[in-house]
Amino acid sequence: LDFLHRRYSLAMASNRSRTAQGTAQRFGLDRYLRLVVGTREVERPKPAPDMLELCMDKLGTTPETTLFVGDATSDREAANAAGVHFIGIGKHSGAPEPLASFRDLPARLGVDSR
Questions:
Q1: Residue 68 — φ and ψ, nearest 5°?
Q2: Which residues lie across from 35 on neighbouring strands?
Q3: Residue 76: which residues within 8 A CB-CB, separation 6 or more?
Q4: Among 24, 29, 91, 95, which is least packed, fewest CB within 10 Å?
Q5: Collapsing DSSP states into helix, strand and coil, what is residue 12?
């Protein structure tokens, strides 16, 4: 995350409601994230595109310049509904070629994380 947040605007879209912010803080993710969106901030949770659309609006990005990384089929479905690129992590992501670990993300993006 340290490597990625120095190069990209990172956000978290979680189907948690009142605990999304707390989860980011508890695991120290908040220092890397520009935005945390939970179900309280949108009308519909994932797999609807609402969270991703809110993130793009707040970060000033477009579907063409947005990548959503997720570990559930609802994440893949939300990415498809929002028209954004998706990379899945783990066998439950529904991705055709999921990453085994988040640590594999820089290589998939074609960036050197050293």
A1: -110, 125
A2: 11
A3: 70, 86, 88, 93, 94, 95
A4: 91
A5: strand
Burial of 78 per CB tally in 10 Å (0-12, 13-18, 19+): buried
Helix (H, G, I), strand (E, B) or coil at 35: strand
Q: Choose among 77, 82, 74, 17: nearest CA to 49.
A: 82
Asked if 70 and 86 count as a contact pair (C-beta separation under 8 A), the reply is: yes
Specify the residue for token string 């695991």.
27
Tens of pLDDT, residues 63-112: 999 999 999 999 999 999 999 999 999 999 999 999 999 889 989 988 87
- The C-alpha angle with vertex 98 and arms to 2 and 23, in degrees rounded to 5, equals 45
Which sign does the torsion angle of CA 103, 105, 110, 112 carry?
negative
pTM, two decimal places? 0.91
